[in-house]
Amino acid sequence: MKYLERFQRVLINPTWEEIVERDPLIAFSHYLSGRVSVLCSFAEEIIENLDQGFSGECVDGGRIGRADSLMWLWLLGAYEVVRTMHQAKECFSERLVRDVGALKKTLATVRMPAAKMEKPGKKAAVTSNRSPTGWSVENRDLLVNDPEESPDISARWILSEFDRVFSSITRGDVLASGI
């Protein structure tokens, strides 16, 4: 995750400007910045489990199951972080508001079936016409949206899209604190 790469170099007694340069979201909210780091750590573990679970002639169902469970939690958390930022539009640059809005729309499409086990906008249960956890063995991935909707949304893609948006945030994108 590119977002987490920012934190690999440890600064001793950093100034506020050095902290904000490294992690611009902290200028909006310490708490939200920390939640994004947690989500990125989950994303790394999900990808590691997918890579190892689909690595051989046999699929390791335990690793894929772990990736699936973490992906469910990741989706719930990612949506809430993005929703919070989208509600605080005045605190961010126009570019970031557009990117966050597009990400929110995608996450909303995936979150509803995952969180409520319902089709978006309907009081109808999500059925499954594919493998129970939406495995894509050929792509070494999970399919995370409603199985009856197309196109499929893959875990790897949505994780990379989240990372792309959050890695692109600069100090200039954070206009005000969320406090």
Provide the descriptors you would attach to this structure in a database record.
179 residues; mainly alpha; two-stranded antiparallel ribbon
What percentage of the residues does DSSP assign to strands (E)? under 5%
In this structure, how is the largest beta sheet organized? 2 strands, antiparallel
Please report the distance between the alpha carbons of the first and last residues. 28 Å
By DSSP, the count of extended strands is: 2
Task: Provide the structure class.
Answer: mainly alpha
**Radius of gyration of CA atoms, rounded to a whole number:** 17 Å
Low-confidence stretches: none
Element-level helix/strand string: HHHHHEEH
**Overall average residue pLDDT:** 88
**Approximate shape:** globular
Q: Helical region count? A: 6
Order of strands across the widest beta sheet?
1-2
Helix content: 40-55%
